[in-house]
Amino acid sequence: MRLSIVGSGYVGTTVGACLADVGNDVWTIDIDESVVAALDDGTAPVHEPGLDALLAEHAGSRFRATTAYDVVPETDVTFVALPTPSNPDGSIDLSAVEAGVRALGTALAPTEGYHLVVIKSTVVPGTTDERLVSLLESTSGRTVGEDLGVAVNPEFLREGSAVEDFLHPDKVVFGTEADDRANALLRDLYDPLLTGDTTLVETGRREAEMIKYANNAFLAAKVSLINDLGNICKEFGVDAYAVADALGADDRIGAQFLRSGVGWGGSCFPKDTRALIAAAREVGYEPPVLDAAVSLNDQQPRRLLSLLDEHVDVSGRRVAVLGLSFKPGTDDIRNSRAIPVVTGLRERGAEVVAYDPVASENMRERFPGISYAESAAAALKGAHGAVVVTDWDEFAALDGAFDTMARSVVVDGRNVVTRREGLTYEGLTW
Questions:
Q1: pLDDT computed for residue 284 by the predictor
Q2: How far from the centroid of its chain's Cα atoms is residue 427's Cα?
Q3: Which of 30, 92, 235, 262 suits a disulfide with 337, CB 3.0-4.6 Å?
Q4: Which pLDDT value is given to residue 45?
Q5: Residue stretches of the chain with pLDDT short of 50
Q6: How far is CA 118 from CA 34, 103, 122, 304, 359, in A?
Q7: Beta strand 25-29 with 2-6: parallel, antiparallel or unpaired?
């Protein structure tokens, strides 16, 4: 199938490369010429395992990039994969999506024949029907349901495993308002990915929009709940991870997202939870559970620092921060728990030395005034304390490097360091 994708960021590039890999001809469209040039050269704009290999194989053949919308009429389906960042009040900023949809409609105006537009951007329920459909119709001169199809197809990609998630999905959601042509095109497109283990959900556009938010809000709340329980466990001297293992054995609960720690970050959980709260308030509903999930998440970095305060006065002393990305496997620092941790340490007057396998340069833009080590061992040397913020595998193997610290005090926000003699160890929740 011939596809175009508006937006060449994390989602657009991953979706495009994966769809090219299963046999489609894909054009991605982006206003950033440097991103387009990199993609045409086979280089991904983000750090994502497996993505560079797909681009190296398909760039210039089944996968191409451009800044021009004139490729749209040559395709059968266009995905809109543009960002919807948070406004200060938590609501989503639709300016990029609306600009992309406007340009897309203009490109379709002189053409004939049915074309399917698929909204992959994360938008609150009602956005597609109430704002994007009318924008598409007015700019294209087409009528949705006649010569123009509009579907919502949310993504459920986890950074660090996005390629695997797309190629082997747990579920695929089509929101089409019972448009048979749209459903048929989407089924044909996704057929290579719809195995016996994949659930296909065919529903309305509003429901598809809500499924994405409900998915992330539920997982964010689950993480906050296990962190809350973990905090209680620590007060009672209980092994929170033994408790979580037992909880995970209950099939009503499930084992995933039960590792208590310093909290959730990234682009999706914080943005989507805040957006859903803002949207609920706009229609007159106060969501107490989601409010509590956000509040608990904001509390965890402060708890980590308070545990360090119990052992070390960090003012004027070197403190190692291990892990800067919001999760292992990515260089994404958006809403990373390292940000409030570094901020809190600097407020205490600490000399912060940070290390991350891939995210140091991104964090340097946020905190140019701190030091960045070339290795975890280098960050630890001479430090009076260390905090573990991201659970990179290499941190579990440090062991002897802690002996080079001026004071071997470690506050572990991810339960990756092994307790042992000679190490003053505090787990965040155990």
A1: 98
A2: 26
A3: 262
A4: 85
A5: none
A6: 25, 15, 12, 43, 32
A7: parallel
β-strand partners of 152: 119, 175
**If you ran DSSP here, which 8-state letter would residue 132 be given?**
I
Predicted pLDDT at 178? 79
Report the length, in residues, of the chain: 430
How many helices and strands (H and E) does the chain possess?
A: 15, 14
- Mean of per-residue pLDDT scores for the chain: 97
How far apart CA 277 and CA 283 sit, in angstroms, is 10
For the residues of 330-397, what is the DSSP string, one character each? ----TT-THHHHHHHHHHTT-EEEEE-TTTHHHHHHH-TTSEE-SSHHHHHTT-SEEEE-S--GGGGG
Do 192 and 125 meet the contact criterion of CB atoms below 8 Å apart? no
Would you say the pTM of this structure is higher than 0.90?
yes
User: At 175, phi and psi to the nearest 5?
Assistant: -110, 105
Spatial contact of 410 and 424, defined as CB atoms under 8 Å apart: yes
* Set 18, 44, 268, 380: catalytic member: 268
User: Which contiguous run of DSSP H or E holds residue 323?
Assistant: none
**Catalytic annotation present for 268:** yes
Nearest Cα to Cα of residue 75 among 13, 19, 117, 135: 117
Determine the pLDDT at residue 352.
98
Question: What is the pLDDT, as a whole number, of residue 195?
Answer: 87
DSSP secondary structure of 119-131 = E-S---TTHIIII
Taking the alpha carbons of 294, 298, 304, 307 in that order, is the dihedral positive or negative?
negative
Reading the block at residue 105, the tokens are 């409609």
Please give the pLDDT value at position 204.
97
DSSP 257-288: T---SS---TTHHHHHHHHHHHHHHHTT---H
Please give the Cα distance from 268 to 282 (Å, whole number).
21
